[in-house]
């Protein structure tokens, strides 16, 4: 299956010598939701800007729908909707006119019914006749999304779309995203709210220092890199761990009342039964146990932290 976006050996070095992207390779499939995670300055916005034709790469190639983003800019840009981080709108224009104008800019014929539907989906319909300067920051961000959807793009880039908006609006936005995906729209988002990526993304990419560290299907990533923790609440506190338990990745809680066993992915499943048998041999009994699996945020922090350590 041909990817809807294909990025090959993409680099970008600015005039001041800063390398924003360093040989990024990425294929994005039609209809998926891909979350790009990375700290500030990692290269997320530069990558999006190049795909959208707003910034020229230093080297490499980007195809959108099989068309080169430089040589066939008009074709590729018509396929893409972009919700930028910055609130760049005419503050003295109405919501309705702003969104309708955006559709016309992309060469699409007027479609009042579509604009009405978009505004209602984003809870903007009661504000359709308000000037943008009269709206809250969250409402202005909704207008950016409405503008991006006005020309019915096949690919939607959301660059930190929920930054500075309240929880209710965030939830409404993701309902719109799910509806778009159901209609076949491919969605690429960057976010600092990692729980959002964990909830809605199909695949997750981690970018740092201009390099794409990994791109994986979300569930597979969490199975492979997610740490699991088994906590055993002891019947009697321990002062120290017996030497016979040194083979296991065990830690004793500060008060000696619990044993904590950490393992990676599936590797520790077999060792748990062995550990429990070893505890019984040592006459160590527990009254309760609980398990915890690391979140996508834990994995992200670990990956970026390891990368920072390599740089040092």
TrEMBL record:
GO MF assignments: ATP binding
CDD domains registered for this protein in UniProt: ABC_DR_subfamily_A (cd03230)
Gene3D superfamilies the record matches: P-loop containing nucleotide triphosphate hydrolases
Residue span, ABC transporter domain: 5-234
Keywords: ATP-binding, Nucleotide-binding, Transport
Species in which this protein is naturally found: Rhizobium puerariae
Source organism, top-level taxon: Bacteria
Family note: Belongs to the ABC transporter superfamily.
Protein name in UniProt: ABC transporter ATP-binding protein
